[in-house]
Amino acid sequence: MTLDLFRSDATLRECEATVQSVGPRGIVLDRTVFYPLGGGQAGDSGVLQVLQGALAGQVLPIIDTRKGKDAEGRFTADICHLPDPAQPVDLTGLQPGDRVRARLDWARRHRLMRLHSTTHLLCHLVPQLVNGCSITPEYARLDFHMTDPLDREALTAGIARLVAEAHPLTVGAVTDAELDANPALVRSMSVQPPRGSGSVRTIRIGDAQVIDLQPCGGTHVANTAEIGAVVVTRIEKKSASTRRVVLGFAD
User: Fold this and answer.
1) Centroid of chain to Cα 50
2) Each residue of 208-217: b (16+ CB within 10 Å) or e?
3) 245 neighbors 207 (Cβ within 8 angstroms)
4) What is the pLDDT of residue 194?
5) C-beta of residue 102 within 8 angstroms of C-beta of residue 29
6) In whole angstroms, what is the distance from residue 80 CA to residue 29 CA?
7) 215, 179 Cβ separation under 8 angstroms
8) pLDDT (tens digit, 9 = 90+) per residue, 70-96?
9) CATH 3.30.980.10 segments of the chain
10) Taking the CB of residue 173, how many other CB atoms lie within 10 A of it?
11) CATH match of 3-104 with 2.40.30.130
12) Following DSSP, what letter does each residue of 89-155 receive, concatenated?
């Protein structure tokens, strides 16, 4: 099981960790700051600097991060760091118990955080269910279940206003029972938040005024002012009942 440090503090850029296993699915650590692909958000990249063992002093590029799977293909609590297959280092020298320093590609992660937080602002501006989502370092998209047209300039202006108002983002939680009693908190039609642990992680935007509150396991900025210049680059009619909104950076 990997301790996911990013869940409670998305600003952590590195940590020391112990190798748990090395296999075809990647390198599993006992703790990490790397976010694994999930919830529409891309997995993190960066490096593992080996501190102890046969590969001490080597730096291993990590090109992606994924959730672990068991033999039946079910997700586990492991987080797998995928080494660059083109790297010249022989990974057979990396063994369980070796110490490493996991360091994010922070510039890439921060772009993901800015865009992910903007998608939550967009959910406030377009109060419709979402039936698709993708968040990459270059762009993000949300597919809304709706038939009415959307105005690109009006949405861009709405995002700019919410960014300028500098609303805080806070990590919280609701119990499974509270979520069952308030199903409107779940905006996604395609992905349901994980249940069974007793509580579900939430992201709240706003202090006295709640701009958005919904279950989310991704990484976010601490304040909307940190988002900067993000605009709606295009709006597409994907089907009779789906409108796609694509976000990009203006800076």
Assistant:
1) 26
2) eeebbbbbbb
3) no
4) 66
5) yes
6) 8
7) yes
8) 888 888 899 999 999 888 778 889 999
9) 108-249
10) 13
11) yes
12) --GGG--TT-EEEEEE-HHHHHHHHHHHHHHHHHHHHS-S-EEEEEE-SSEEEEEEE--S---HHHH
Q: What is the pLDDT of residues 89-140, one digit of tens each?
A: 788 899 999 999 999 999 999 999 999 999 999 999 999 999 999 999 999 9
> Residue 247: which of 146, 123, 128, 129 has the closest Cα?
123
Residue 20's SS3 state is: strand
CB 50 within 8 A of CB 94: yes
- Alpha-carbon gap, residue 46 to 79, rounded angstroms: 14
Return d(Cα 194, Cα 72) in angstroms, integer: 19
Tell me the one-letter amino acid at 136: T
The residue type of 152 is: R
- Please state, in angstroms and rounded to a whole number, the distance separating the CA atoms of residues 174 and 117: 19
Distance CA 97, CA 87 (A): 22
The amino acid at 203? I
Residue pointed to by tokens 């590969």: 55
pLDDT band at 33 (very low <50, low <70, confident <90, very high): very high
What is d(CA 39, CA 169) in angstroms, rounded to the nearest whole number?
Answer: 18
Topology annotation, domain 108-249: Threonyl-tRNA Synthetase; Chain A, domain 2 (3.30.980)
Residue 47: both structure tokens together? 């490096």
Name the residue type at position 40: G
Q: What is the pTM of this model?
A: 0.94
